[in-house]
Amino acid sequence: MGSECNCAAAVIACQNLKNQMKAVKDGMENPSWKDLVKKCFMTGVDLTAHHMGHSTVDSLVGYNIWGAVVTEVQVDVLTGMMSIARCDLLEDTGMAISPEVDIGQVEGGLILGL
């Protein structure tokens, strides 16, 4: 749940920042983002926010990840040498935040499993 914790923490930090800016925004009439940030800065509003993501504290729901791997291995019965002839992997990654990262994670997990 690493990516999910990071995303949830970013959303919560953004909400905290919006709350810090609310008093200034309420005193302005439909400000642009740039004008709001400038006014907040000029009035001393702390324009930083953070949140440490935690699956239990943030009530994130766990889920199952399904995958299957079939590996064809050749074994030399005289020497005991083994070699992988073919390896097919399938994993349901759901809606990927970053497909390249997902591919790296799946491939890394496969290599660790070998």
Structure write-up:
The protein has a two-stranded antiparallel sheet. The model has no long low-confidence stretch (mean pLDDT 90). It has helices at residues 2-26, 33-42, 99-113; strands at residues 67-75, 82-91. The protein has 3 helices and 2 strands; from the N terminus they run ααββα. The protein is of the alpha+beta class. It is 44% helix and 17% strand.
From the alpha-carbon coordinates, what is the Rg to the nearest angstrom?
A: 24 Å
Q: What's the main sheet like?
A: 2 strands, antiparallel
Approximate strand percentage: 15-25%
Low-confidence stretches: none
Fold topology:
Blueprint: H1 2-26, H2 33-42, E1 67-75, E2 82-91, H3 99-113
Antiparallel strand pairs: 1-2
Task: Jot down its keywords.
114 residues; alpha+beta; two-stranded antiparallel ribbon; 3 helices; rod-shaped
Structure, briefly:
The protein is α+β, with helices and mostly antiparallel strands. The chain has helices at residues 2-26, 33-42, 99-113; strands at residues 67-75, 82-91.
